[in-house]
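anyone seen this seq b4? input:
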Amino acid sequence: MAVVAARELADGEVVFVGIGLPNLACNLARRTHAPRLVLIYESGAVGATPSRLPVSIGDPALVTGSLMVCGMADVFQLFLQNGRIEVGFLGGAQVDRHGNINTTVIGPYARPKVRLPGSGGAAEIAIHAHRILIISKLSPRAFPERVDFVTSPGQRVAKVITDKACSSAMRRAAISCSPDCIPGSRRRK
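predicted toks r here
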Protein backbone atom coordinates (compact mmCIF):
# COMPACT_ATOMS: atom_id res chain seq x y z
CA MET A 1 0.00 0.00 0.00
CA ALA A 2 2.82 2.39 0.86
CA VAL A 3 4.52 1.83 -2.52
CA VAL A 4 1.27 2.45 -4.43
CA ALA A 5 0.59 5.58 -2.36
CA ALA A 6 4.16 6.83 -2.92
CA ARG A 7 3.64 6.59 -6.69
CA GLU A 8 0.70 9.01 -6.37
CA LEU A 9 2.97 11.82 -5.19
CA ALA A 10 4.75 14.16 -7.58
CA ASP A 11 7.99 15.99 -6.95
CA GLY A 12 7.39 19.41 -5.40
CA GLU A 13 3.87 18.71 -4.11
CA VAL A 14 2.89 19.89 -0.63
CA VAL A 15 1.50 16.99 1.42
CA PHE A 16 -0.33 16.99 4.74
CA VAL A 17 0.84 13.74 6.27
CA GLY A 18 0.27 11.77 9.45
CA ILE A 19 2.06 8.84 11.01
CA GLY A 20 1.80 5.25 9.76
CA LEU A 21 1.40 4.24 6.12
CA PRO A 22 0.99 7.81 4.81
CA ASN A 23 4.27 8.75 6.49
CA LEU A 24 6.00 5.70 5.03
CA ALA A 25 4.61 6.50 1.56
CA CYS A 26 5.70 10.15 1.68
CA ASN A 27 9.21 9.38 2.86
CA LEU A 28 9.54 6.59 0.27
CA ALA A 29 8.45 9.02 -2.48
CA ARG A 30 10.91 11.63 -1.20
CA ARG A 31 13.78 9.14 -1.32
CA THR A 32 12.91 7.59 -4.71
CA HIS A 33 11.29 9.98 -7.20
CA ALA A 34 10.11 13.13 -5.39
CA PRO A 35 13.06 14.65 -3.46
CA ARG A 36 11.38 18.09 -3.36
CA LEU A 37 8.17 16.75 -1.77
CA VAL A 38 7.18 19.13 1.04
CA LEU A 39 5.89 17.27 4.08
CA ILE A 40 3.70 19.09 6.60
CA TYR A 41 2.78 17.35 9.84
CA GLU A 42 -0.17 18.32 12.02
CA SER A 43 2.20 18.90 14.95
CA GLY A 44 3.68 21.95 13.18
CA ALA A 45 6.71 20.56 11.34
CA VAL A 46 6.71 22.17 7.88
CA GLY A 47 9.10 20.93 5.22
CA ALA A 48 10.22 18.10 7.48
CA THR A 49 13.01 15.86 6.20
CA PRO A 50 13.24 13.15 8.87
CA SER A 51 16.38 11.01 8.80
CA ARG A 52 14.31 8.09 10.09
CA LEU A 53 10.62 7.26 10.16
CA PRO A 54 9.02 9.19 13.02
CA VAL A 55 6.96 7.16 15.49
CA SER A 56 4.49 9.96 16.26
CA ILE A 57 3.63 13.47 15.07
CA GLY A 58 5.57 14.73 18.10
CA ASP A 59 8.76 12.84 17.24
CA PRO A 60 11.88 15.08 17.43
CA ALA A 61 13.04 13.61 14.07
CA LEU A 62 10.43 15.86 12.42
CA VAL A 63 11.92 19.07 13.79
CA THR A 64 15.53 18.54 12.75
CA GLY A 65 16.01 20.05 9.31
CA SER A 66 12.44 21.37 8.99
CA LEU A 67 11.89 24.63 7.12
CA MET A 68 9.59 25.84 9.87
CA VAL A 69 8.17 24.67 13.18
CA CYS A 70 4.93 26.31 14.27
CA GLY A 71 1.81 25.59 16.25
CA MET A 72 -1.00 23.32 15.09
CA ALA A 73 -3.33 26.31 14.63
CA ASP A 74 -0.80 27.92 12.27
CA VAL A 75 -0.53 24.75 10.17
CA PHE A 76 -4.30 24.67 9.74
CA GLN A 77 -4.80 28.40 9.20
CA LEU A 78 -1.72 29.37 7.18
CA PHE A 79 -1.34 26.27 5.05
CA LEU A 80 -4.49 24.14 4.96
CA GLN A 81 -7.22 26.79 5.01
CA ASN A 82 -5.23 29.02 2.64
CA GLY A 83 -5.27 26.28 -0.01
CA ARG A 84 -1.56 25.50 0.11
CA ILE A 85 -1.95 21.75 0.72
CA GLU A 86 -2.08 19.79 -2.52
CA VAL A 87 -2.44 16.28 -1.09
CA GLY A 88 -3.98 15.10 2.17
CA PHE A 89 -3.67 11.51 3.39
CA LEU A 90 -6.60 10.16 5.40
CA GLY A 91 -7.82 6.87 6.80
CA GLY A 92 -10.77 5.87 8.91
CA ALA A 93 -12.78 3.13 10.55
CA GLN A 94 -15.27 3.24 7.66
CA VAL A 95 -15.11 4.56 4.08
CA ASP A 96 -18.15 4.38 1.82
CA ARG A 97 -18.37 4.21 -1.97
CA HIS A 98 -18.51 8.02 -2.17
CA GLY A 99 -15.29 8.48 -0.22
CA ASN A 100 -17.02 9.67 2.96
CA ILE A 101 -15.01 8.78 6.06
CA ASN A 102 -16.24 7.82 9.52
CA THR A 103 -13.95 8.27 12.51
CA THR A 104 -16.71 9.13 15.00
CA VAL A 105 -19.01 6.17 15.87
CA ILE A 106 -19.89 2.65 14.78
CA GLY A 107 -23.66 2.27 14.93
CA PRO A 108 -26.24 5.00 15.56
CA TYR A 109 -24.78 8.24 16.89
CA ALA A 110 -27.17 8.38 19.88
CA ARG A 111 -26.36 4.79 20.96
CA PRO A 112 -23.13 3.73 19.27
CA LYS A 113 -21.63 0.24 19.53
CA VAL A 114 -18.20 1.88 19.48
CA ARG A 115 -17.21 5.50 20.00
CA LEU A 116 -14.14 6.41 17.93
CA PRO A 117 -11.57 9.23 18.40
CA GLY A 118 -13.41 11.65 16.11
CA SER A 119 -12.22 13.96 13.38
CA GLY A 120 -9.06 15.46 14.77
CA GLY A 121 -8.05 17.47 11.72
CA ALA A 122 -9.45 15.03 9.16
CA ALA A 123 -12.61 17.00 8.35
CA GLU A 124 -10.53 20.14 7.69
CA ILE A 125 -8.07 18.19 5.54
CA ALA A 126 -10.92 16.59 3.58
CA ILE A 127 -12.44 19.94 2.62
CA HIS A 128 -9.30 22.05 2.13
CA ALA A 129 -6.63 19.83 0.54
CA HIS A 130 -6.80 19.86 -3.26
CA ARG A 131 -6.98 16.05 -3.40
CA ILE A 132 -7.32 13.31 -0.84
CA LEU A 133 -5.71 9.88 -0.80
CA ILE A 134 -7.26 7.30 1.53
CA ILE A 135 -5.23 4.33 2.75
CA SER A 136 -7.01 1.48 4.52
CA LYS A 137 -7.09 -2.30 4.70
CA LEU A 138 -9.92 -3.71 2.60
CA SER A 139 -12.69 -5.43 4.57
CA PRO A 140 -16.51 -5.40 4.53
CA ARG A 141 -16.50 -3.70 7.94
CA ALA A 142 -14.15 -0.93 6.77
CA PHE A 143 -15.97 -0.39 3.44
CA PRO A 144 -19.74 -0.52 4.05
CA GLU A 145 -22.32 0.70 1.53
CA ARG A 146 -22.84 3.78 3.75
CA VAL A 147 -20.75 4.98 6.68
CA ASP A 148 -22.55 5.10 10.03
CA PHE A 149 -21.55 8.75 10.45
CA VAL A 150 -19.95 11.17 7.97
CA THR A 151 -17.00 12.68 9.81
CA SER A 152 -15.14 13.80 6.68
CA PRO A 153 -16.85 14.32 3.31
CA GLY A 154 -15.53 12.48 0.27
CA GLN A 155 -15.86 15.15 -2.46
CA ARG A 156 -12.09 15.57 -2.90
CA VAL A 157 -11.08 11.92 -2.70
CA ALA A 158 -8.84 11.19 -5.67
CA LYS A 159 -7.90 7.62 -4.83
CA VAL A 160 -8.61 4.89 -2.30
CA ILE A 161 -5.67 2.55 -1.75
CA THR A 162 -6.13 -0.77 0.04
CA ASP A 163 -4.10 -3.92 0.52
CA LYS A 164 -6.12 -5.64 -2.23
CA ALA A 165 -6.98 -2.92 -4.73
CA CYS A 166 -7.04 0.78 -5.45
CA SER A 167 -9.68 2.96 -6.95
CA SER A 168 -9.84 6.34 -8.57
CA ALA A 169 -12.90 8.20 -7.40
CA MET A 170 -14.55 10.89 -9.44
CA ARG A 171 -17.14 13.31 -8.15
CA ARG A 172 -20.56 11.74 -7.78
CA ALA A 173 -19.21 8.43 -9.09
CA ALA A 174 -19.17 5.40 -6.85
CA ILE A 175 -15.82 4.01 -5.78
CA SER A 176 -15.26 0.58 -7.24
CA CYS A 177 -12.04 -1.17 -6.37
CA SER A 178 -9.81 -2.76 -8.99
CA PRO A 179 -6.86 -4.97 -8.02
CA ASP A 180 -4.92 -3.86 -11.10
CA CYS A 181 -2.71 -1.37 -9.25
CA ILE A 182 -1.57 -3.68 -6.43
CA PRO A 183 1.29 -6.00 -7.43
CA GLY A 184 0.42 -9.64 -6.76
CA SER A 185 -3.29 -8.92 -6.29
CA ARG A 186 -5.80 -11.01 -8.22
CA ARG A 187 -9.48 -10.61 -8.88
CA ARG A 188 -11.72 -12.96 -6.97
CA LYS A 189 -14.33 -14.78 -9.01
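The chain has one domain: 2-181. Residues 170-174 have pLDDT under 50 and may be disordered. kinda curious what u guys think
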